[in-house]
Amino acid sequence: MRRKALEFAFPKTIPVMAGYVFLGITYGILMSTKGLPWWLPIVTALVIYTGSMEFLMTDILLSSFNPVSAFVTALMVGARHLFYGISMLHKYSGTGTKKFYLIFATSDETFAVNYSEEIPEGMDKGLVYLIVSALDQFYWVFGAGLGGVLGAQISFNTKGLDFVMTAMFMTIFLNQWVKDGTDLKRIVKDHVSELIGVICSVMALMIFGPEKFIVPAMVLILLSLAVMRGWLEKEEGGEQE
Amino acid sequence: MTVLQKVITIAVVVLATMTTRFLPYILFPEGKEVPGFVKFLGRYLAPAVFGLLVVYCLKNVQITAGSHGIPEAIALLVTSALYFWKKGFILPMAGGTITYMILVQMVFA
């Protein structure tokens, strides 16, 4: 039973492994080249465990002490977790004591993997989610630790390595796009949600700038979806008939 | 920052991050009927957020200055082409990242 769940879950985490180990190493190197101790990336990878915020930590920990600003920044950067939580309410229900860790370990990629997983009948879904979540965090901690230890010893030019995060989200986005339909005649109808996400984010970015656009973008996305709700549910209902 | 100040900073960041993760489950515990709008969001929000995350990664790209976002555009095209060619995750990610690294280190350096 456990073995089957592992055999099912592990392959789904391989792309995350590639991304997290690479990105984790990048993060660890960044921390150590900024003069922070080698073990700090491991600690933050264990307790904060959200890449974007951890990268920001490399700056925050070196600036003057301002816990209120750090708190607000973390809330804003982490705000997307609210969306993930709402999306996962149903999937994570009935997972018992595992649920605490599942919620704690919700990262962008773990969410993406667990959200799109179709678990076979009879398999313990909580166990599958747990294995995916724990493996993903292990990859991240491992990468961060390795990066912290290697630090300045690495001699090859790592410039541009952080694009792995962009490429990862792009691939996840495309994967969702294909899943929602590939019929060119229905390209707008099938992808309203994806289009709203991109258009609202670009608009918010142009208006509010790179440092402050996340929250306005989320508000715009929510409002747009709310406006489109009746139409979207009618479209979906129509397909099922 | 002193060591204590660093510890406090990390602690508040953990607190804030955990708030964003646990809040939905605290507001809608198991057994409690989830409102229709929240269920609707559960279905339609994720694809939009993936779009947001792509834009988020590109937020510091300047169209009017520097390399005009050309390396990013090329690398994303490579990523997309590899995805539509072979599906899967590793190949598009690796191909796009290596393309980008070559571009920013050699071509647009």
Number of strands of chain A: 0
Separation of the first and last Cα atoms of chain B: 35 Å
Helix amount of chain B: over 70%
Amino-to-carboxy terminus distance of chain A: 37 Å
Largest interface: A-B, 95 and 69 residues
- The total tally of domains of chain A equals 2
How would you sum up the global shape of chain A? globular
Query: What is the H/E order of chain B?
Result: HHHH
The mean pLDDT of chain B is 89
State which percent range the strand residues of chain A make up. Answer: under 5%
- How many H/I helices of chain A? 12
Oligomerization state: heterodimer
Task: Name the beta content range of chain B.
Answer: under 5%
Number of strands of chain B: 0
Q: How many distinct helices of chain B?
A: 4
Could you list the spans of chain B in which at least 5 consecutive residues all have pLDDT below 50?
none
Radius of gyration of chain A: 20 Å
Secondary-structure content class of chain B: mainly alpha
Structure commentary:
The complex is a heterodimer of chains A (241) and B (109). Chain A is mainly α and 241 residues long. In chain A, 76% of the residues lie in helices and 0% in strands. Chain A is built from 12 helices and no strands. The longest helix of chain A is centred in the N-terminal third of the chain and has 32 residues, at 2-33. Chain A starts with a helix and ends with a helix. The mean pLDDT of chain A is 87. By secondary structure, chain B is an all-alpha fold. Chain B has a domain at 33-107. Helices cover 75% and strands 0% of the residues of chain B. Chain B is built from 4 helices and no strands. The longest helix of chain B has 25 residues, at 3-27. The interface between A and B is large, with 95 and 69 residues.
